[in-house]
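Take a minute with the sequence and fold tokens given here and flag any structure token that looks odd. Thanks in advance.
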Amino acid sequence: MMTPEMIKKTYAKALAAQQSGRLTEAQKGYARILKTNPNLAEVQFNMGRVAAGLRQISEAAGHFEAALKLKPQEPAIWLAYLDMASRHPNVDNLAKLLARGGAGLDRFAEVAFYKGLIAARRNQPKDAQTHIAEALDKGLKSPRAQVELGMAQAALGDPDAALAAFDAALKLAPSYDFALSRKAGLLRDIGRTDEALEAAKEAIKAAPKKGAHYHAYASIAKMKADDPMISQMEDVLKRTPKTDPGRIYLGHALAKAMEDTGQHTEMFRYLELANAQLAKTHPYDAAADAAQAEAWQAKWQILAEAEVPETTQSDGPTPIFVTGMPRSGTTLIEQILASHSECEGAGELSVLGKLIGDVLAQEHADAASLSEGLRTAGAQYLETLRARFPGARFVTDKSISSYSLIGFIRHALPQAKIIVVRRDPGDNALSLYKNLFAFGTHRYAANLGDIAQFMQLFESQIASWRDKLPDAFSEQSYEALIAEPEAQTRALVANAGLDWQDACLSFYETARKVDTLSSTQVRQPIYSSSVGAWKRHEAEMAPFWERYGAE
């Protein structure tokens, strides 16, 4: 049993250790106190902060909850708890915690930032910008907030404001690798490659153990065999624990280095290393995807059999949906169309799919109520386009999964144009396998057999829509575009409902932010080196063809 004097001395030592970064030592001291007296709110609070610093998330949450039970109105406890929750990629817990804290916390600048963070993660960049700007106006001096503001501004199509925000973060923290890496990515996406490369190098210098920074560098650089970054990546990979997600980034970065230097066998060795770990941590559920597609087709039958009249599109720009398998050439197609003076390129908006998905998830008494839900979704989508692109006549939306909703899109937006891009399955599969998507997205891409299965599902959905609605969409072959650029581009522009403009042939000169893995490629004239590329890896691609079917 500790006396009050012993508790006081132990607390002072633990607090000093915590303040000097000796978190494990501090944790042991606080634990001794709590074993004697668990009802000390300040000790529970600091124990929570220490556990959070050690990334012991569940333990930290337990201590914060204990502290709040003792002092439910103490802002410092709420703010520390919220800060920990804000660092998890899923913001649902952060949102719930904010709601528990109540309006009494709204006077704190940090709370405005957390609201902005929630909006950003939920793909609401306008709200994110508003909340984070409020936090900064209230006096929040946070490089992290500046970076998040910049990311929201970039999503809203204002790269200059975004770069200014990143620079503001770096003024507060010159070696902040998060700001440097985001700056590098944005500079790459707007075509300022040399500056992007320098920012990526600075990010690596600031945090040389982080695999993600090497991956960013590899996505920008065309590496040569004597590039010192290759040996540095190999060394970091050897020193990175096998369960660390950084190995995934490093494996893909080294695969890109091997491809750049013509070491194709080594390229696949690194891809297999990285993708095996990715597939294990983020497994693909093919049955769930197939069930989703089947459920949506069943919903479509409700409309088709009832012969519900087509809706009339509300006022607003004409959407042009560019869709297809990821890595099939959709970014190139959008860049061509966005080079037209009457067409704005929105990139992957991911707005209509969610709106329609919410409608399809509901129970409907009849086809009329389903139709009404789709009509409302279409009107809400057009409202988003009008707000984002005032005065635009046409807007491209490259949300990849639109192909699975073709019938519903045409019902909600009858004037919309839909272009499905097709690519040689071997080349498409190789490109998927060698590119790294955001963790948890496109899970099939980490395994060649899963890619084949997903591609078969894609093919079956396109065939179904082609059978049911042959005039609802047009199809564009990537290989045909490469072989006959002008003829195919003219046909593409016509299918999009646009008059011809020569600027569509010089699409690579169009200055716009391209926020996809193909941002570098679409700033070059059309090239054919990627056509038939899978044949250089015929043996390694065997698992794909065995599952997909060589025919």
